[in-house]
Structures are given as C-alpha cells and as structure tokens.
Design brief:
The structure is a single chain. The protein has helices at residues 2-16, 21-31, 35-43, 63-95, 101-133, 135-138, 141-171, 176-204, and strands at residues 45-49, 52-55. The protein has two domains: 2-55; 63-204, no CATH class. Strands 1-2 form a two-stranded antiparallel sheet. 80% of the residues lie in helices and 4% in strands. By secondary structure, the chain is mainly alpha-helical. The chain has eight helices and two strands; from the N terminus they run αααββααααα. It starts with a helix and ends with a helix.
C-alpha cells in the first residue's frame, strides 16, 4: 500500500505539471518501477481538467455491502451443498428402490433447499437490479472477493469430483450410482461457478 501511494502521488504530480503519460511511464521505468505497477497507476487518472488530473472511480468498500454479499454467497454455497445432498438421496432412492433410508435422509436437505432457495433468488434479483443502476456497487471490493471465493469453492469441488471419478475407475468401484453422484456434484458446482463468474465479469467491465 505504501508503494501504491508513492506512485500515485508521483503520477498525480507529474500529470498536473503537464507531463504526458508516456513521459511519466518512462520516468518510472527508469526509476525501477515495473509496467505492472505503472499501468494501473496511470489508469487511475482520466486526463487533466481544470489544471488537475481527473481521478477514475475506484473500488468501494462499505460494511453493508459486506453483509449483503456474505449473506448472498453464503446462501449460494450452503444451498448448493444441500441441493447436492438432496439429489444424492434421490439417486440412492432410484438405485436402491424400497430402501427405508430415503425418508430419514431426505427431510433435512429438502427443508434447507425449500428455505434457502427462494431467499437466495430474491437476494440475487435484488442485487441484479441494484448493480444495474449503481455502477459503484459493481466496483464493490466485497462483491468481487465473494464472487472469487465462490468460484474457488466451485472449482475445488469440480476438481475433487474429477479425482473421485478417476479413483473410482482405478479402484474398480465406478458404478452407475457413483457416476450419477459425481455428475450431480459437477453439475451443481458448474452452475455456482457460472453464476459467480457472470457477476465477476460485470464488475470487471467497470
């Protein structure tokens, strides 16, 4: 953070004195700064007006955004886990017709999906409406972090499922029932990843 404030101050001062972005970049490179540091520093300013560099809008971080997105993505991941559990119970029911375990195992994940599902979709729709009308919200630090955390969880789940599938093949336990359960995990994880990636792209476009 100290380095960023130093380069920002220099870029601001140089642009205010009439230096061109190319001249600023050359001076920073000569001083040892990397282009990966110079380009974002220059990108934080939009020309010069009224005798001073014009700042570009940056990321926002508000406590209410943390609450909202922690709740939204918490519901997404918690709901996805219970959806997988529910679908796996249904897979067992299909392949183990007449099993008495179905009734005992289905109640909790079904209750979780019934409660979490509508709440998540309501919050997701609310976020979509708010983000469409408020560009600052799309730049929220917490919105970006939560989306990438969700993508990480989904990617880890898909990788774990692939490992389990290969292990099952090598160990000789790759049954149709097992394959269906792997497909359930992969499908739900892919949906979570796609949703989070869509939100991440909307923020990157800012």
């Amino acid at each position: 953070m100290a380095h960023r404030s130093e380069i920002d101050r220099f870029v601001h001062h140089a642009l205010a004195q009439g230096a061109s972005p190319a001249e600023v970049s050359a001076s920073l490179q000569e001083a040892g700064w990397a282009m990966s540091e110079i380009t974002p520093a220059l990108g934080r300013w939009h020309g010069v007006a009224l005798g001073a560099p014009v700042p570009r809008p940056g990321a926002t971080a508000q406590a209410r955004d943390f609450f909202f997105y922690a709740l939204l993505f918490g519901l997404l991941l918690f709901g996805a886990i219970h959806l997988v559990l529910l679908l796996n119970v249904l897979v067992d029911w299909v392949f183990e017709a007449g099993s008495t375990r179905f009734a005992r195992r289905v109640s909790w994940p079904m209750a979780a999906v019934v409660v979490i599902g509508p709440l998540f979709f309501w919050l997701a729709a609310r976020d979509h409406r708010r983000a469409a009308s408020d560009a600052a919200l799309r730049r929220s630090v917490f919105r970006r972090w939560m989306t990438y955390i969700a993508m990480l969880g989904a990617a880890a789940s898909m990788i774990g499922s692939a490992v389990a599938a290969v292990y099952g093949l090598l160990d000789g336990d790759f049954t149709a029932q097992f394959a269906c359960k792997i497909a359930v995990v992969l499908g739900v994880s892919a949906l979570v990843f796609a949703y989070a990636r869509q939100i991440a792209r909307s923020g990157e476009a800012e």
